[in-house]
Amino acid sequence: MRNSTSIAIGGFDGMHIGHQQLFNALDKDGMIVVIETGYANLTPKKEREHFTHFGILYLELESIRHLSGVEFIAFLKEKFPKLQKIVVGYDFHFGKDRKYSHRELKELFDGEVVVVEEVSLHGDSVHSHKIRAKLQIGDILGANAFLGHNYTVKGDVVSGQGIGKKELVATINIEAEEFLMPKEGVYATLTRIDDEEHFHPSVSFVGHRVTTDGSFALESHILDGEVLCKERASISFVNFIRDNKKFASLEELKQAIKKDITIASKELKFLQL
User: Fold this and answer.
1) Which of 8, 32, 2, 6 is nearest to 85 (CA)?
2) Per-residue pLDDT of the chain in tens (273 residues, 90 and over written 9)
3) pTM for the complete prediction?
4) Could you write out the DSSP letters of every residue in 173-210?
5) Which residues pair with 88 in a beta bridge?
6) What are the residue ranges spanned by the domains of the chain?
7) C-alpha to C-alpha distance for 75 and 156, rounded to whole angstroms
8) With contact defined as beta carbons under 8 Å apart, do 222 and 203 qualify?
């Protein structure tokens, strides 16, 4: 860290295609400085590290928000003695009450300040809050396009309601409270089991089990055969299939799941797993 000559500063929740533009401006020994606000739920905590080869320094907003512009620069130089370049987005602000912008940063820092302009896709500006909004309406394709990767949640395996394997289909149930859940419904997904490197084609359900016990669930059915998941799993969302729906009987639910599996199988058929 102390040998880094360039840093990119921001919240970087999602590590989306706009963020990647900032990282592209770093030198080969550059580092990413993440300002943790407590609101990151696309890539919470250290999940960001899966989407970059650069090292990451995490700073709590509460520990630096009181700093003046001069104090902030002094703080960065203490962390990075060889600092020559700072990369920020066009909407970057820092200091008490977000008083300072990239303009003051250029005045206060005696090295190079690179300001990355707004990144757009199909005429729509890319922001983390827009990705969250897309996920919450089930626009997985739109969210993934902004992210530059499939939206993925990870969590520990938990016990299900106990009727899946016996009455419906076998599922892996996980708890991923730190992540934003997409709109309630059924999705074509890719599921990674424990420490396996590859993903299994799958169909996943997010939401309240309105036909059975009413509890909230995040569960995935593996399409290429039943697998044993011991501790953790990750679910990567590929496309939305249908809304959550209450069925009159378990038999109706079972038939709907069969249709979901057929649709998901077609969606995932040509993906390189």
Assistant:
1) 6
2) 778 999 999 999 999 999 999 999 999 999 999 999 989 999 999 999 999 999 999 999 999 989 999 999 999 999 999 999 999 999 999 888 888 899 999 999 999 999 999 999 999 999 999 999 999 999 999 999 999 999 999 999 998 655 555 567 889 999 999 999 999 999 999 999 988 888 999 999 999 988 887 889 999 999 988 777 889 999 999 999 999 999 888 889 989 999 999 999 999 987 755
3) 0.92
4) EEE-TTSPP-SSEEEEEEEEETT-SSPEEEEEEEEE-T
5) 115
6) 6-124, 152-268
7) 38
8) no
Q: Alpha-carbon distance 141 to 14, whole Å?
A: 15
Q: Is 270 exposed, middle or buried (0-12, 13-18, 19+ CB in 10 A)?
A: exposed
Sheet holding 112-116, edge to edge: 55-60, 31-36, 6-10, 85-89, 112-116
| 132-to-15, 67, 129, 185 alpha-carbon distances in Å | 13, 30, 5, 16
CATH class of 6-124: alpha beta
| Paired tokens of 259 | 């249709």
DSSP state of 70: H
Compute the distance between CA of residue 273 and CA of residue 269 in angstroms, rounded to an integer. 10
In CATH, what is the architecture of 152-268?
A: Beta Barrel (2.40)
